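Can't attach files on this board, so I'm pasting raw text. These are the components:
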Amino acid sequence: MIPRDKPSGSIENSAAQQEVVLSGVSKKFRRGSLALKDISMHVDKREFVSLLGPSGCGKSTLLRLVSGLTTATEGTVSVMGKSPAEVREQVSFIFQDATLLPWRTVEQNVGLGLELEHEKQATRKEKVAKMLELVGLTAVAERYPRQLSGGMKMRVSIARALASRPSMLLLDEPFAALDEMSRDRLNEELLRLYSEQQWTVMFVTHSVAEAVFLSTRIVILAPHPGRIAHVVPIDLPWPRTAETRLTMAYEEQVARVSRMLRSVQNASQNDFAGEAEQGGGA
Amino acid sequence: MNRKLWFALNSVFIFGLLLAGWQIGVVALKVPAYILPGPDVVAKAVVTHLAALVQSLLLTAEAAAMGLAGSIVVGVLVSLMFAQWRWLRKLLFPYTILLQTVPIVAIAPLIIMWAGAGVYSVALITFIICLAPIIANTTQGLISVDENLVHLFVMHNASPLQVLFKLRLPHAMPSFFVGIRISAGIAVIGAIVGELFAGSNRVGEGGLGYTITYASSQLETDFLFALVFAATVLGFVFFFIGMFLEWYFLHNWHESSRSDVAE
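---
Top answer:
Structure tokens for the assembled complex are below.
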């Protein structure tokens, strides 16, 4: 049968290996709604953790807290033992849309981060060329974003994120806008790079299949307010390839996580009904 | 290519048709030339007054170009400040709308009174009517940057100057050129309106606006038509230069400036 031993990343490790630590984190939006309530979790070095949940569960907000793009109302977030803003050079963020600069060629877009970090032009060119090769875009280096397909744009975005050699990747539904085939292919490539580059990854998605395929661990969030509902280690064997999607073990995991997600969704709908009744009284 | 040629030929044909209709109408209805001269008379007037026409045209072009250039420089500086300081924008932006709604015809005599007659007053009037479109469009372009792009720059520890020069300014270029296109179109109108009042500080010499008042007071309707024709051509040239610059700077990457011109 399938070996049931957990991948090293998901084992409760010593504090030294905990790359990201959130303790008692709450986030209140300016309008007063509570996006996240009392979140405590950690991500170990080299782990691939997906954040999964219905819309409104605060999974993107959680990622933004770890990136330092927004700050917690309560509790602490630490990344590599420091505050998120202090370790930005080592963290790359990949957004849902490719966020390319349309006035720059593919090559210039990939080099943006290095340019902002004042890398010398010669080394920059070298690194950019290497990154383009890595994501298979060397042939379109001179093109502008408008000449690329959605999948290619996302690849440029990934190449740009990797160019500054991050040790941690934060991805916010990066493939949500792509068709299923491009999404599958990019997932496979992401895993290939993940095993080569030894990153720690946090990945926000609303696709169960994607989360199961990629992750060492899935954190399922419940909405209103955003809180952790389940933590699910995914013990599919490595390396995972397109073949992995055809196995029984994979399908079982997808079914299991789907059930958990559905129960969270149903519970939150009941919440809504309750809230509506209370709202009528107030 | 063939399609473009077809459209070009057809526009020329429509123009010819209009001229022919005009000529036939004038002859058939026996309209006196001082009320409506036929195109043949206008063409003759263009030839006989060519020197005066060109001189007026150049004077107007000079004033319009000065005013437009000034509005671009000042407009971009103001937009940069508006983009940098939200409170300043909230405080002063309504006044740029005021700038656009104030009837230039009404304040032109005031400006002449304060600044005196001559090319600089005319340029000042042009400047005033060109300023608002530049400010409104450029500011819009500078502040409408996608939040995630700003976040991307933040994640790379970009300095405020890097955000300005590598993100906001290039992002604002298409909107900036929309402003230029609008202002280039009205710059010539502004200059001519200015000249109607400012006229000239030298007797017998003035821009198109001044010469138009002269021609109409003398009932030289054919010359008047020639002047209107010249003014239209000048407006078109300004507009075209704006369009060309837009195409030149943006055609590589921006959707709006592809295929419209040249390509």
